[in-house]
């Protein structure tokens, strides 16, 4: 009689111990690093005092981390020839910034609770704190990720591109279990931060070899952008109304044909797409957007690495631990 229960218990325990990040939970550091949320909040708010884009940089890092082999801090690893083929060298990560801010958060966290908190969790928490400090919603962040001892530049090269059609973007999200609602919701992070001109000047003339501008880009806005784009590397705000605030203006911009990237505007302007109605819903209700944003961020944050990849709590977010440091190596 007792055996089936015992077998079940053993199976559950095996599952929990056998995998490096079996089940994330918000209380993971409650006893080992109770001050963690405050430490992160403190450093991110300091960073925002000198860098308007600090919050945008941090959430984008979490996105690029999670989309490549799960949220495992792999995006932060620097190149080590023959050992680590850094994801930072993949074209989609070419403009990524904020590693210096992550270093500062990590330093503060290490001094509060040495060797306990993973860099992947620091990214997840920083993303949430960044949104809150920019006027957006709070959500409860599941924790307990480990840091990978591997990077995958090939996979990073396949991150979503601003030049892809909606079908391709949807397929890339769907491959990770993220649906149209998640795509529209998470793209809402383009309510703050900047994009370099090189990602959208192709919309101004001869768009997609049509000989004409992108018809889904408002003509007056197009000329404003053309003026702003003095060099391909010039950075322009995603949201011209409230550039550094986390709000629903992104969706209102899309309705007004003022999406900055082709991939933004497609969510609203692709004929017959299921994403148009979702844009309209969020443009009409900041509350619905905020609630769904937390849900979709948790879903993205739950993406986990394939089993069997060696992991640890990295001491320096940019490097795997030296062999002598045995923090949680499996
Ligand atoms: C749908 C697919 C997506 C595409 C094609 C895309 C593309 C881009 C591009 C091209 C940039 C400008 C990069 C540069 O100038 O170097 C950018 C910036 C940014 N992205 Fe995305 N993105 C996508 C989804 C997301 C998601 C899911 C998030 C977060 C949840 C996000 C957050 C950001 C933020 C905050 C910035 C501004 C960063 C800064 O100011 O440094 N993006 N994105
Ligand atoms: C890296 O990612 C690619 C594409 O997702 C995959 O095919 C390959 O197996 C991965 N390589 C490693 C070493 O994990
Ligand atoms: C660009 O052109 C290609 C080929 O004609 C087409 O399949 C694609 O949908 C076009 N993209 C956009 C955004 O119009």
UniProtKB/TrEMBL annotation:
EC number(s) per entry: 1.11.1.7
Compartment(s): Secreted
Any Pfam family the entry gives: peroxidase
Cofactor note text: Binds 1 heme b (iron(II)-protoporphyrin IX) group per subunit.
Coiled coil: none
Cited SUPFAM superfamilies: Heme-dependent peroxidases
Span of domain Plant heme peroxidase family profile: 23-321
Keywords: Calcium, Disulfide bond, Heme, Hydrogen peroxide, Iron, Metal-binding, Oxidoreductase, Peroxidase, Secreted, Signal
Signal peptide (UniProt feature, chain positions): 1-22
Major place of residence: secreted
Cofactor list: heme b; Ca(2+)
Top-level division of the source organism's lineage: Eukaryota
Classification via InterPro entries: Haem_peroxidase, Haem_peroxidase_sf, Peroxidase_pln, Peroxidases_AS, Peroxidases_heam-ligand_BS, Secretory_peroxidase
Reaction it catalyzes: 2 a phenolic donor + H2O2 = 2 a phenolic radical donor + 2 H2O
Keyword Disulfide bond recorded: yes
Function description: Removal of H(2)O(2), oxidation of toxic reductants, biosynthesis and degradation of lignin, suberization, auxin catabolism, response to environmental stresses such as wounding, pathogen attack and oxidative stress. These functions might be dependent on each isozyme/isoform in each plant tissue.
Matches recorded under PANTHER family: PEROXIDASE 58, PEROXIDASE 72-RELATED
Family named by the database record: Belongs to the peroxidase family. Classical plant (class III) peroxidase subfamily. Belongs to the peroxidase family. Ascorbate peroxidase subfamily.
Protein name: Peroxidase
The organism of origin for this protein: Citrullus colocynthis
Highest classification ranks of the organism: Eukaryota, Viridiplantae, Streptophyta, Embryophyta, Tracheophyta
